[in-house]
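Hi V.,

Quick status before I head out on leave. The structure for the redesign project is tokenized and pasted below; the design run finished overnight.
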């Protein structure tokens, strides 16, 4: 530990998938003490507005790959280090859990290199949030014994041998960042003869008031939803368990068409600091 009083500290914390009440008590306590909050696009604004220290400096550094707006990772790393070196308590809030499809490794490397003390606080990842709010137990007994967390945001990420394996496994598959490639996912799985029992659930804006869930047998998806457009963020669950939504859904689909997480503008280090 670095006991130098001049140096601050960075808390890298998961904010949960959307519903602000899904943050941990620990992360919330840090937010109440934070002097600087560096937050992402997929973090509920309610957390900042209602629960965070009102005096904190709040910087939005979210990424939205498809729309090309983002704060470069290098700048985020520098902000974390710079504010901590000024002696500040910095909370780096990330959507969902910090260790699932996030750039935590870059940030940890930057902190270690600069000898900044830090803590990591987990969060509810989108798969857990979506599973709960859509009534889909991910490893329901007699349905599935494992869950795979996957991304297919670009089509060269998974090779043919892997798709063959995904089509035969009984594991529940959860695809992050893959709403643009959903038709390709369905094609690959049906093309590799996935079980006729496999269902697909597409959960848009999970755990928010804008949540919408669409389900189909994987073989019927193209017919029913091929032209469907999804609002970001969207999560895809594939497996026998996805059929359980019909029986256990407890939330009605939103028909608002509203975006819970506002799109972000492009930022530079200077504009983030302004
Ligand atoms: N660290 C995050 C994931 C970041 S990657 C976590 O643990 O959840 C961003 C992807 O996560 C999105 O493209 C989407 O696939 C998924 N995601 C995050 N929040 C979501 C939400 N509220 N509803 C549906 N999918 C979500």
């Amino acid at each position: 530990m670095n006991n130098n009083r001049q140096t601050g500290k960075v808390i890298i914390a998961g904010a949960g998938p959307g519903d602000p009440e899904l943050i941990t008590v620990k992360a919330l306590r840090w937010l109440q003490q934070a002097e600087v909050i560096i937050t992402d696009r997929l973090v509920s604004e309610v957390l900042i507005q209602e629960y965070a220290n009102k005096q904190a400096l709040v910087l939005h550094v979210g990424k939205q790959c498809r729309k090309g707006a983002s704060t470069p990772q290098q700048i985020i790393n520098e902000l974390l280090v710079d504010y901590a070196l000024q002696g500040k308590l910095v909370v780096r809030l990330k959507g969902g859990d910090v260790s699932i499809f996030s750039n935590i490794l870059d940030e940890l490397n930057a902190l270690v290199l600069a000898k900044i003390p830090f803590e990591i606080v987990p969060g509810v990842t989108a798969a857990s949030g979506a599973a709960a709010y859509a009534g889909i137990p991910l490893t329901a007994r007699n349905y599935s014994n494992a869950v795979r967390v996957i991304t297919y945001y670009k089509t060269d990420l998974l090779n043919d041998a892997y798709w063959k394996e995904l089509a035969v496994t009984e594991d529940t598959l959860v695809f992050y960042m893959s709403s643009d490639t959903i038709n390709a996912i369905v094609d690959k799985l049906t093309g590799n003869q996935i079980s006729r029992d496999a269902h697909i659930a597409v959960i848009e804006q999970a755990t928010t008031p804008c949540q919408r869930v669409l389900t189909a047998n994987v073989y019927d998806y193209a017919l029913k939803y091929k032209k469907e457009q999804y609002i970001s963020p969207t999560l895809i669950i594939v497996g026998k368990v996805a059929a359980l939504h019909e029986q256990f859904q407890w939330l009605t689909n939103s028909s608002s068409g509203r975006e819970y997480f506002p799109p972000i503008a492009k930022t530079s280090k200077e504009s983030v600091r302004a």
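Above is the designed sequence. Residues 77 and 110 are 6 Å apart (CA to CA).

G. will cover questions while I'm gone.

Best,
W.
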